[in-house]
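A reminder from the course coordinator: this example appears on the midterm review sheet, so study it carefully.

Given structure:
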């Protein structure tokens, strides 16, 4: 049994619907189809979910939403007319309008994109429609109730049938619609895969798998054939956004592989995400580096105080200052009596001087400094632990390209090395690692 999730670009138009149908019908094992809301057909077009968020904003401020509502209506009518679907869109939109006029909550409004797309796709595939609010169960604290979700789903399905389920939303115990964070359809697909014990979870998008580096920085970067959950987590956290971070956990729990595929290029092998790549690595040479990613615009607070390394609770006191301002800490590189706290620059823009003042007052350091011009480059790879001095080679490569290293942090499992450089050196840093450890290694393999 396969669970297949199709993203917004895969269902953006009647043409894309036809591609989805061809893919689904090519394998009868694809029994659970999860869809996002319609994405953009062209640069000038709008994502349906973006329109619905904007529509809610208009309602909130008492501004007419008719023009936005009309864009959403037109989008689905074009698809239905092109595919000769019989769904009663007038009735559907009348029901949505009634809910809007009676002060529907934002979660209900923005979930209608997935709902309508799934209704259309179910008819087009001659499959059964399952409303996510009747399947995906949230607890009141926002966590997924996996056991209740399983009971909900199993009570409604018959094995051997094909089902289409909207992504992105579910329901609270009182039946109220609740949405996930943007990109949440990935999570819906992963939850369904967990519940039905799928042999694989396919995630169909508009890219052919996961790339070694950002194609906006590296021209035509290589595609990663196989990657571990842990490697993907390291890459996605630092900016590689092919799959929603939280989509990993439901499938990892049951060791279900994720297969990233391209709706527009279905014959491409894509990228497999596995819990364990040892069998694959026995057959094929393992690369030192699996992926290179990162982000610009970080800030660092460096605190120096004599004997602080032996002062019990010093680091905790330092981190509590950031917690007081609800600031997420990205990394804490430490040397003797020197502690650096790295955070996203935007997060501390309004309170950086207050944080500096609190550090001075509560910790009484010998020195405290603040720097904004920082980018983090993450080099991720399960092959690094097999290469003695791999991190030293990275640093040497930066040195030979005259890239100054401001911070370095390596995980104990030797899965990733994070290096801090100036914002202006960010692209060059990624280029030099790609050239040395991806391109050259590939040529010599």
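Designed residues:
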């Amino acid at each position: 049994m396969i669970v297949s999730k199709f993203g917004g670009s895969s269902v953006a138009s009647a043409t894309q619907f036809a591609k989805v149908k061809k893919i689904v019908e090519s394998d009868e094992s694809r029994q659970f189809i999860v869809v996002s809301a319609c994405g953009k057909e062209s640069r000038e077009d709008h994502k349906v979910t973006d329109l619905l968020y904007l529509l809610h904003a208009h309602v909130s401020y008492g501004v007419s939403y008719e023009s936005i509502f009309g864009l959403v209506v037109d989008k689905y009518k074009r698809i239905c007319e092109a595919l000769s679907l019989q769904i009663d869109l007038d009735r559907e939109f009348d029901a949505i309008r009634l809910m809007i006029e009676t002060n529907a909550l934002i979660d209900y409004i923005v979930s209608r994109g997935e709902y309508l797309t799934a209704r259309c796709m179910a008819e087009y595939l001659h499959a059964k429609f399952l409303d996510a609010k009747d399947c995906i169960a949230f607890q009141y604290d926002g966590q997924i109730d996996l056991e209740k979700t399983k009971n909900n789903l199993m009570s409604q399905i018959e094995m051997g049938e094909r089902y289409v389920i909207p992504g992105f939303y579910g329901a609270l115990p009182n039946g109220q619609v609740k949405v996930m964070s943007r990109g949440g359809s990935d999570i819906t697909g992963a939850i369904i895969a967990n519940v039905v014990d799928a042999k694989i979870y396919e995630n169909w998008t508009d890219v052919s798998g996961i790339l070694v580096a950002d194609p906006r920085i590296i021209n035509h970067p290589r595609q990663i054939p196989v990657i571990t959950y842990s490697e993907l987590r390291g890459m996605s956290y630092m900016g590689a956004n092919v799959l929603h971070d939280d989509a990993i956990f439901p499938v990892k729990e049951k060791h279900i592989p994720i297969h990233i595929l391209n709706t527009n290029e279905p014959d491409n092998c894509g990228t497999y995400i596995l819990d364990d790549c040892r069998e694959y690595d026995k057959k094929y040479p393992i690369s030192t580096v699996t992926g290179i990613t990162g982000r610009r615009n970080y800030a660092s607070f460096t605190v120096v105080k004599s004997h602080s390394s032996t002062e019990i609770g010093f680091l905790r006191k330092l981190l509590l200052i950031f917690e007081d301002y609800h600031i997420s800490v990205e990394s804490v590189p430490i040397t003797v009596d020197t502690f650096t706290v790295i955070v996203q620059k935007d997060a501390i823009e309004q309170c950086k001087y207050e944080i500096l003042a609190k550090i001075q007052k509560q910790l009484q350091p010998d020195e405290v400094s603040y720097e904004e011009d920082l980018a983090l480059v993450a080099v991720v790879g399960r092959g690094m632990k097999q290469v003695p001095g791999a991190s030293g080679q990275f640093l040497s490569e930066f040195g030979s390209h005259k890239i100054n290293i401001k911070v370095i942090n390596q995980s104990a499992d030797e899965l990733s090395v994070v290096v801090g450089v100036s914002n202006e050196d960010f692209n060059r840093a990624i280029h030099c690692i790609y050239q040395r450890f991806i391109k050259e290694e590939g040529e010599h393999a």
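The chain has a mean pLDDT of 93. The two ends are 36 Å apart (CA to CA).
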